[in-house]
Amino acid sequence: MSRATAAAVLPTTAPAAPSRPASTGRRLRTVVAPVPRRRPKLVYALVALGGAALIGAGQIGLSLAITNDSFVLADLTSQQRELNLQASALQDDLAGIESPQLLATKASELGMVVAGSASYLRLSDSAVIGANTGADWRSTVDPKGSGAVHNALLDHAALEAAAAENAASEQTVGDVPDPNLPPPITDGLPSPTTR
Questions:
Q1: pLDDT tens, 13-68?
Q2: With 0-12 CB in 10 A as exposed, 13-18 as middle and 19+ as buried, what is 151?
Q3: pLDDT of 178 higher than 60
Q4: Helix locations, the chain, DSSP H
Q5: pLDDT confidence bin for 149, thresholds 50/70/90
Q6: How far apart are CA 156 and CA 96, in angstroms?
Q7: Measured between alpha carbons, how far is 52 from 89 in angstroms, rounded to an integer?
Q8: Using the 8-state DSSP alphabet, how is residue 125 labeled?
Q9: Terminal-to-terminal C-alpha distance of the chain
Q10: In Å, how far from its chain's centre is CA 143?
């Protein structure tokens, strides 16, 4: 059979549309996965607040540590100033003790005298070169005479009087401070005590 005969023999009919089920009000849909339960947001809020509180506490702790270190540094600086003043006073005392005036005075008190010219002993032949005379009992240097240079570090009477006056003034100031005077400045500007 040819195509032409087959078309004549077969009736021509329109293709049938797919049949739709009768509309019952329900439609088919694809199944989706169930929506997962959402985690409570309160936990996240508590974690965030806790973290912020820890960061704030850490910053406050560091600030207090730095502040404490600055107080310690200020205390050490004032101690260093005081020690420097004490070292300076001790250097002045040492300079007074080492002064030629004091040495000459002490030597004079011990009965030592300065001889005139020096004598030397030559070892090769044991000869004495120089004046070859002993010192007389009068010194050629008078440490307390008119040509002596005044040394304030050796004026013990004035130093003792000044020390007694300072001690008396410290007792007076320590016992009853004068209300008309500002507070004494010992280590820089006065500041409130924070400890």
A1: 555 556 655 566 778 888 888 888 776 788 888 999 999 999 999 999 999 988 88
A2: middle
A3: yes
A4: 3-9, 41-98, 100-110, 156-175
A5: low
A6: 10
A7: 56
A8: T
A9: 120
A10: 50
Other beta carbons within 10 Å of 143: 19
Count CA atoms closer than 13 A to 25's CA, side-chain side.
0
Distance, CA of 117 to CA of 134 (rounded, Å): 10
Contacts for 112 with CB less than 8 Å, ≥ 6 apart: 139
Q: Using CA atoms, how far apart are residues 104 and 102, in angstroms rounded to an integer?
A: 5
Q: Which residue has the higher pLDDT, 42 or 116?
A: 42
Residue 71 has pLDDT above 80, yes or no: yes
Contact 116, 135 (CB under 8 A): yes
Which token pair is 190?
């006065």
Token output for 187: 């280590």
Q: Structure pTM?
A: 0.38
Hey, what are 61's tokens? 């702790």
Say how far apart CA 62 and CA 69 lie, in whole Å. Answer: 10
